[in-house]
Each structure stands twice: as structure tokens, then as C-alpha cells.
Design goal:
alpha+beta, single chain, 5-stranded mixed β-sheet, Beta Polymerase, domain 2, about 180 residues
């Protein structure tokens, strides 16, 4: 039991917010490393690598295509795996962490430009900031996404631009106009 004066480190914080009693997050990372699977983090946790972090229960990944089926066999033997047209969701009964593996081929190029970054106490392979922004632009522009998800994507785009104002220059014209109305 934690005492009132104890300080929680970032890894303990992630474990607490994801309610990860099964060590799903660590086991998944170990599987990727042990099987030498090239991956990178995209999405909200990747945004956290470049900006002030916000809490997220989602871990969005890109996996190198030639290792994907091998990895799926391993994951299916240990976790719940659900396949969708453009993604694969992985979860564990002992954790609230939601892992989504992006299978859209546009994301494969992100792997070559990724680098190790600290994300909430874990050293992870993370997409380059320009690629994280591009992924968020694609997500925001997807008319099939729920409006609440699109608003979160827009907030993440703004967080990235606050970090580097030059990123605004790569936005599509309609999105640049929209965020200009917000004062950027």
C-alpha cells in the first residue's frame, strides 16, 4: 500500500491509469523487443513524446508489415485480438489499455524515421514529429471517425503546433484556416 508521502513514478502512473494488473503494457513491449519487431508509436502517446503529456488509455502502433502475421500469431495466443479493415485491436482482461495496430500502408514509411523517446516513463520507438502530425491529420480528415475522436485529433494537432509553429506550414489549407480562427 502506498503511503501518502510516496511519489509515484511515470511507469507506476501508467499502470494505475490503465488499471494494468496483468502487466499487459510491459509484456507487449517485451514481445516486440524479444522478436525484433520494428514498430513505432503513433497517435496520442506519440504526441505526448513531443508535448506536455495528457492521459490516454490508447497505444497506437505501426508494425513493420513483414513481421505482422508472425506477431499476430503470438499476440492471439496471449491476448484478445480483433481485426478490422485498417487496424488490429489488442487487449488484455487484466488491463484497460487499448492497443491499436494501424495496418494502413501509408504509415509504414513512419518506421524509418522513428526514434527512441521517453513516453510516460518508458523508452519507446516513436514516429518523428512530422509523421505524428501527418497521422493526426489523416485521422482528423477521416469522415468515418466519431466527432469526439476528431476533436481529440484536432487538439493533438494544436498541441504539436504549439511545440513547433513551423508545423503549421504542412497543414492542408482548410485545416490551416480552421486553426487560424482559433488564434494560431
Amino acid at each position: 500500500m502506498r503511503k501518502r508521502n510516496d511519489v509515484m513514478n511515470a511507469e507506476e502512473f501508467v499502470s494505475q491509469i490503465t488499471n494494468d494488473h496483468s502487466e499487459f503494457f510491459q509484456e507487449l513491449l517485451s514481445l516486440l523487443e524479444d522478436h525484433r519487431v520494428l514498430y513505432c508509436v503513433i497517435g496520442g502517446l506519440a504526441v505526448n513524446a513531443y508535448t506536455e503529456p495528457v492521459v490516454s488509455l490508447d497505444l497506437d502502433l505501426v508494425i513493420v508489415t513483414d513481421k505482422l502475421e508472425e506477431l499476430m500469431r503470438i499476440l492471439e495466443s496471449r491476448f484478445k485480438v480483433t481485426r478490422f479493415p485498417r487496424s488490429i485491436n489488442v487487449s488484455s482482461a487484466g488491463s484497460d489499455l487499448r492497443v491499436q495496430i494501424q495496418t494502413d500502408p501509408r504509415y509504414q514509411a513512419f518506421l524509418a524515421r522513428s526514434s527512441r523517446k521517453n513516453v510516460l516513463g518508458h523508452e519507446l520507438q516513436v514516429a518523428a514529429i512530422e509523421d505524428v502530425l501527418q497521422g493526426k491529420i489523416w485521422a482528423y480528415a477521416d469522415p468515418e471517425r466519431r466527432p469526439s475522436k476528431r476533436q481529440k485529433d484536432l487538439a493533438d494537432i494544436l498541441r504539436l503546433i504549439e511545440t513547433d509553429l513551423q508545423l503549421k506550414d504542412v497543414l492542408p489549407d482548410d485545416l490551416r484556416s480552421e486553426i487560424s480562427r482559433l488564434g494560431f
